[in-house]
Design a protein that fits this description.
The protein is mainly beta. The chain has 2 domains: 34 residues; 170 residues, no CATH class. The chain has 2 helices and 14 strands. The strands form 4 sheets. The chain has a 6-stranded mixed sheet with strand order 1-14-11-10-3-6, with no helix packed on it. A 4-stranded antiparallel sheet has the order 5-4-7-8, with no helix packed on it. The longest helix is centred in the first third of the chain and has 20 residues.
Length: 206
């Protein structure tokens, strides 16, 4: 093989190695080849008011798991018994019961959340979820359009809730922020001058 061909072959091998490395996840032996990842909330449209946060609240919820543990901000946010299966969600609107976060006033950002659990088939999983990386621009993910946010909020940092859900083999990260609005969201309710949409920001199936 000539030097030119050898060089091309070396470049091809190097490129393949880099591609394999790029598919390796931070969650141990799992790889992107067997995982799906979405970032729905990260796409901030031009018509959404830009708001920031420097502190946040955090809670984690486990379903269809065995012995799930979530360590974040130096605290176990979930610490299920080692061999106890957690039941499935209670119904299609189960996330509506997520009322407020457990860990309050967390400065942006601690070390990544360390998650260990077994899925329903007994497979052991480990994942390191970089909350600071997911929200690296410190933007509040919400659905209030420009011009509709209360003016006194525009120069303030909000403190949104960040929720993590572990459900069998899938981890999802959500944000929920209480954003005041200039007008009532429901004209029949005098105290409805806000939105607090729960927005899925990141997910991965292991």
């Amino acid at each position: 093989m000539g030097s030119h061909e050898a060089g091309k072959e070396g470049a091809r091998i190097l490129g393949a190695a880099l591609a394999v490395a790029a598919l390796t996840t931070a969650g141990g032996c799992q790889s992107a080849v067997s995982a799906t990842t979405t970032h729905e909330g990260r796409s901030m449209k031009d018509d959404i008011e830009v708001l920031h946060f420097k502190t946040h609240n955090f809670s984690a919820w486990s379903y269809n798991t065995i012995g799930c543990k979530v360590l974040y901000a130096n605290q176990y946010q979930v610490n299920d018994p080692q061999d106890r299966p957690e039941p499935p969600p209670s119904g299609p609107k189960y996330r509506e019961a997520w009322s407020g976060a457990v860990e309050v006033g967390v400065d942006n950002f601690p070390q990544p959340a360390q998650v260990t659990w077994k899925s329903l088939d007994g497979s052991q999983h480990e994942a390191s979820i970089d909350i600071g990386g997911i929200f690296k621009d410190q933007l509040v993910i919400h659905r209030v359009k420009k011009g509709e946010v209360k003016e006194n909020l525009l120069d303030q940092d909000l403190m949104p809730d960040i929720f993590m859900e572990i459900n069998d083999r899938t981890i999802r990260v959500f944000m929920q922020a209480h954003v005041g609005t200039k007008r009532l969201q429901d004209p029949t309710r005098p105290l409805s001058d806000f939105r607090d949409d729960l927005v899925e920001v990141w997910s991965k199936t292991y």
